[in-house]
Amino acid sequence: MPEVVMPRLDPGMQSGKIVQWLRKEGDLVQKGEPILVVEGEKTTFEVEAPDTGVLTKILVEVGSDVPVTQPVAVIGEAGPRSQSTSALQPAAKTTPAPQVAEKSAAAHGERVVASPAARRLAQEHGVDISNLRGTGPGGRITREDVLAAVEYVPMSGQVPSKPRQPTVLRKVKLEGVRKVVAERLAFTARTAVPVILTMEADATKLVLLKNRESGVSFTAFAVKAVAKSLEKHTAINSTIEGEEVTTYSDINVAVAIHTEQGLTAPVVQHANQKSPKEIGADIESLAQKAKENRLTVEDLTGGTFTISNLGAHDVETFAPVINPPQCAILGLGRIVYKPAAVGERVSARPTTMLTLVFDHRIVDGVPAARFLQEIRRNLEDPESLL
Fold first, then answer.
1. For 268-301, how does the pLDDT look when each residue is reduced to its tens digit (9 = 90+)?
2. Residue 360 falls in the annotated catalytic set
3. pLDDT higher than threshold 50 for residue 84
4. Which one, 157, 242, 256, 288, has least CB within 10 Å?
């Protein structure tokens, strides 16, 4: 019988939360018909029925966090429910019996199993090893077990003290968007081989042009500069899954946006084919949707490169985390005036720091450096972006 499974939107997605069942057990469903709503990948989306039939069994309740590819429901042939539901009734879960604290070996007259080093250390510090619980093989007391006990043995005449704990302000379960962000960052940390390159760019012409082109943000110019550079340096416009690297002809630049719900990265589609003003309008629209929690799956998927700009928060340089499974991400710092020498004259000019973090599994340092140089040239000559 066909199973409905938790879909994986990209390699970084680990699980999804069941928000709502649109159909109940016993309902007839059509292939392609939405049957449940899932929260995952920074937005909510509908999961469709893989086949036509009767929703014979719902395996997961609303509110449950389900790993990707795990079945959440079963669809059977139209007919009496009694035949299918009884066969599909999941086995009762067994709850392991709670562990009962073991009595010391000395209480049973047994010999305490401990390493020679542990015995010597215990004798030096006056620790009764018969009261210790060993963490070694077969319950063997190790040197580390004795050291842990020594930390809590008070000096003669002193009152035993308790470990100091800071006052708790709040405890929040890691779930929803925050959990997705954590999973994606952990996925990158486990799989990517990140290398960081930084360059300083002269922003003199960019500042003048930005003031002239009202309504166009620095981020919009950066997206256009990156998209134009990706046309020449196609190896960066890639993703990696397992042992396969895929290079794309579409250039879709994701822009990291902070919201009250957490970090999200909606995508400016075909950024190389748009003007900075059009890109700016797209970013403004996506940011508004993100603020109102209205981003769709289409808004959040299909990116081939990501930009993160912390310049508005007075950050000069930082190394962002690669957005998996993409090859690279660009970090933009604030524009700040710095002294610059031209011949014998020294004057202050606006500059900005560009930080490229790339996956060394896909590209090497020299091609990545040339790509970053191309971005700098585009930003230092912003008229070419129009």
1. 999 999 999 999 999 999 999 999 989 888 999 9
2. yes
3. no
4. 157
Specify the pTM. Answer: 0.64
The reply to whether 364 belongs to the active site is: yes
Which residue ranges make up each domain of the chain?
Answer: 3-81, 113-150, 188-385
CA–CA gap between residue 102 and residue 124 (Å, rounded): 26
* b/e code 337-369 from CB counts within 10 Å (16+ = b): eeeeeeeeeeeeebbbbbbbbbbeebbeeeebe
Judge whether 13 and 40 are in contact, CB under 8 Å.
yes
Which residues, listed in sequence order, are joined to residue 305 by a DSSP beta bridge? 253
- With contact defined as beta carbons under 8 Å apart, do 139 and 110 qualify? no
- Structural fold of domain 113-150: Dihydrolipoamide Transferase (4.10.320)
| Annotated catalytic residue within 125, 233, 364, 381 | 364
Q: Is 218 left (phi over 0), alpha (psi -120 to 50) or beta?
A: alpha
Annotated catalytic residue: which of 125, 270, 313, 360? 360
Return the CATH number of the domain spanning residue range 188-385: 3.30.559.10
Cis peptide before 382 (omega within 30 of 0): no
Q: pLDDT tens, 113-161?
A: 887 778 888 887 778 888 787 887 777 888 888 888 776 554 444 444 4
Fold of domain 3-81 = OB fold (Dihydrolipoamide Acetyltransferase, E2P) (2.40.50)
